């Protein structure tokens, strides 16, 4: 969609008491991850933008590889909020991160700092575009939205309009007591992450300046992150979960009948950070009187290892249904088998814990 000229509005905002219609507030958003029909960070960006556009005029700077999906949605949707959002796509450069197989491998490996550096390159390009937009037209607010990691405050905080940052994640360390559930590679990855987190909390100046600049616009994804923001940067924050659950149709959830085993579904990418072994160990310790069955959806680098771990412990009580990672494009295909279960589960060592239930509910929608 094309940008709206300064001073023009496509639809008016809520009516004033005297019957006049004030213009909608204008918000400039930086959301690298923002795309319909996906989960994880893309859903964070998309759902927040949708909520903003219901009341404001929103301009979103996002990654160009989301363009086809976004413009396809905007061409076909009848949602009123879609008339109030514009998307701008910084040109892709060879050194910018994008979800190619090689970059995804880097993201899940010890080379992840290369991905972070590539993402910072994209943020610098987005900041240049944002500075130009702010010079060309008035904005009432800027919002650094996704990625949610505290290491990446972007460049909007340096501009004149009031600044919002969040929901912020990533400030908390992976508890050392949980490392027994990880593979050697997972231990090395998350141990290194904990150490680097400590260094970045102390040494990175941009997050500290951005947190202070945001003031009342600082948003934490969980209470633990809110405490970390106060402890590390001396900045109070408002707690808002990074994601929300989409509306569920009545009758979408399966009710358990008397005598039926508890049907548990786990859906996610099979990587060390999703910590499926935590769930497997907990189930293995349940009393024999508790009758249950677990179905695991998804695939990934840990699939074979988890299969070997689960079979000796749980036997026929468990089945692996390799139907793709949680929140992916296969949500429609997964919906049928997933909603036949009573209890969704998704342990996560590297994401804000407050997002667990909404993410699972999103897989049901």
List the main descriptive attributes of the protein structure presented here:
alpha/beta; globular; 365 residues; disordered C terminus; 37% helix; seven-stranded parallel sheet
Question: How would you briefly describe this protein structure?
Answer:
With 365 residues, the protein is of the alpha/beta class.
Find the structural class using helix and strand composition. alpha/beta
Overall mean confidence score, pLDDT: 78
Main β sheet profile: 7 strands, parallel
What is the H/E string? EHEHEHHEEHHEHEEHEHEHEH
Rg, Cα atoms, Å = 22 Å
Number of helices: 11
Estimate the helix proportion, in percent.
25-40%
Stretches with pLDDT under 50, minimum 5 residues: 1-12, 320-336, 353-365
Going across the biggest sheet, name each strand in turn. 3-2-1-4-5-6-7
Distance between the termini: 27 Å
Strand content is: 5-15%
Describe the protein's architecture and organization.
37% of the residues lie in helices and 14% in strands. It contains 11 helices and 11 strands. The chain has helices at residues 40-53, 67-76, 101-107, 112-136, 184-203, 205-214, 223-233, 276-284, 303-314, 331-339, 356-364, and strands at residues 26-31, 57-61, 85-88, 141-146, 163-168, 218-220, 238-239, 262-267, 292-297, 318-321, 343-345. A 7-stranded parallel β-sheet has the order 3-2-1-4-5-6-7, sandwiched between helices. A 4-stranded parallel β-sheet has the order 10-9-8-11. Helix 1 links the parallel strand 1 and strand 2 (57-61). Residues 1-12, 320-336 and 353-365 have low confidence and may be disordered.
